[in-house]
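[Structure tokenization] protein backbone as discrete codes

[Encoding] learned vocabulary of local backbone shapes

[Begin record] amino acids and matching fold tokens:

___
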Amino acid sequence: MSEADSSEDVPAGREIWIEKYRPETLEDIYGQEEIVERLQSYVAQDDLPHLLFAGPAGIGKTTSATAIARAIYGDDWRNNFLELNASDERGIDVVRDRIKNFARSSFGGYDYRIIFLDEADSLTDDAQSALRRTMEQFSDNTRFILSCNYSSKIIDPIQSRCAVFRFSPLSDDAIRQQVEDIAETEGIEVTEDGLDALVYAAGGDMRRAINSLQAAATTGEIVDEEAVYLITSTARPEDIEEMVQAAIDGDFATARGRLETLLVDTGMAGGDIIDQLHRSAWDFDLDERTTIRLMERIGEADYRITAGANERVQLEALLASLAAEE
């Protein structure tokens, strides 16, 4: 649904900002300038190949796909653009039925239609094989845009049929710019430390930054650091660093107490603490040898938590191992 359409049906104060401020044109996409330039050249030459967008969430993959459709079809883009989410429709039937029915249906005025398959790395191998054959069968009148987090999970025959675009996490400057633009439009006062907190909590994810801004804006007239960290259940970077430093100094009791605060008072999940540790490790005031040791411990804990181990036990073991080596 476009910004204009969504605003007609939803009261202004209750609009979801990630949809309200979703860029409608390629030119409006923040932080992916090189990719945007290449996509614009395809549109300008009316020579769109199959596309594969790979990268983490919230960095512009879906927005780029819909912007391409808007650029090619104008106001008629919805009739010529089919969006499917492979994580919800993983079986081979969706490839054989919905995609083929759309590809076969009649349309006028355009050389091809676009099928956008989001989270394509969730498709089973059988479904991907069927998709490959469908791409071959309807290549004359259909273009596929596939979106995934991990291109390695897409079979090689599909990758070889697509122009691959690897989207990177957005820069702090790109996120800061859009957050400032939205805050100005909405009449929200964001403090400098609040802006820094939004950028830090986003971790390169524009969708997370906008959602956090909207959530923090409901808590008061001013969005500051405290509101952002409370809303996002994110620890201040200095709190994470102090916990790690206490462990490295051999003060396990203090480090464990700070971990307890993060888990209980802040309400963070163990996986979120691991993510923050990984993002911030090289920013800590540690020597290179100690940082490498910390990264090794983070990797071990992350693997075990992912495999189903108890989060608290693994995080305490991480801190204990750092303290024991002091």
About this structure: The beta strands are 50-54, 81-85, 113-118, 142-148, 162-166, 189-190, 222-223. The two ends are 56 Å apart (CA to CA).
